[in-house]
Amino acid sequence: LQKMERLFLLCSGLLVTTVTSQPNVCSRPELSGNIEMSGIQRFSSPGEELALSCKEGYTPVSGPRKIVCTMNGVWTSTKLKCIPKQCPHPELVTNGEVFYEDTVYQSTINYTCHEGYMMTGESSAVCQSSGTWSSPAPECIPVPCGLAPVPLYGMVIYDKVVRGNTANYGLTATYHCNAPYAVVGNPVAECTAIYESSKQMCFFTVVTCPPPESIERGYLSNNEKREFFYEEKVKHGCESPYVLEGNMEVVCQNNGRWSEKPSCKAPCSVNVQRARILHNGKKIWMENFEPNRVLHLDIVSVYCMNKAMKCGYAVPTQCIDGTLNIPECFEEPSALEYTLKPNSLPSEIDQC
């Protein structure tokens, strides 16, 4: 807009018109970066100031926080920046997970619970303009179950102490039946993620096992030729010098079969003639080793020679069910050397 002022002057018989213009005005600026301005006027005159601020949820940094309309109708520049407000990092959830990409204004966090746990509280939260989350972190509490039904003629044994009438997720209960009854099916009930323990009931039937069979080179503590009831036990033994390997006691199981039987393992002979061996912490000449026998799993050491260092050393070997392997480094001396120079044998010289 211009106001023209006409001055009429008479100069040399001519009419002269002069025009004076008012300075340009500033239009309302367009601001970006979440900056907003005060006032509602569309135009500002030179010298007028416009206060700047940040939108809700943003924090001002740098400055200045105002701009001024200049004489040429342009607003001064500003380095004001508005950054999103920061919410604190979300708390970890015991027995659950936290998912989020950022923690600034309008960011979202989501919570989940592990299998077997249920959530109390909100499953998500939003970072608010105040720099706080819209809701606190939830809790993941164990899924409750009812107690396992107690069977007739038996009992229920839990793997942890149970208080009250509920059990927590993962708790297992094992059914035990009084002889001669046995559990049919899986004897274990578990509190699962479906809010209840297994509905499997404990049904019973009379279970018997046939008379147990003796093991080779062994004998039984009970030779009765009858049916044995569930959970009845019998012991196995071995004739001397055989050694029992496995559980001495077998039990009649709920499938009508005996538990795994042990076995009788054979002794070993030390297959050397002229040497001194180490057995049970003692050095023994072979002619004095009577009877020539070591039991299953017993260890015997023979002596070998380190020819470079001219010293002897003991090498152990173990009896395994009748087999005792002599180490390859062992060299049996001749009869003459064994008789006339026993002090030169690897077992008698300085040890490495």
List its traits.
Complement Module, domain 1, elongated, disordered N terminus, four-stranded antiparallel sheet, mainly beta, glycoprotein, heparin binding, 352 residues, Sushi/SCR/CCP_sf, 1 helix
SSE layout:
Elements: E1 9-11, E2 14-16, E3 26-27, E4 35-37, E5 43-44, E6 49-54, E7 58-61, E8 66-68, E9 81-84, E10 96-100, E11 108-113, E12 117-120, E13 124-126, E14 139-142, E15 144-146, E16 154-158, E17 166-168, E18 172-177, E19 181-183, E20 188-190, E21 204-206, E22 208-209, E23 218-220, E24 228-229, E25 233-238, E26 243-245, E27 249-251, E28 263-265, E29 276-279, E30 282-285, E31 299-306, E32 311-318, H1 335-340
Antiparallel strand pairs: 1-2, 3-5, 4-6, 6-8, 7-9, 10-11, 11-13, 12-14, 15-17, 16-18, 18-20, 19-21, 22-24, 23-25, 25-27, 26-28, 29-30, 29-31, 31-32
Protein name: Beta-2-glycoprotein 1
Subcellular location: Secreted
Function: Binds to various kinds of negatively charged substances such as heparin, phospholipids, and dextran sulfate. May prevent activation of the intrinsic blood coagulation cascade by binding to phospholipids on the surface of damaged cells.
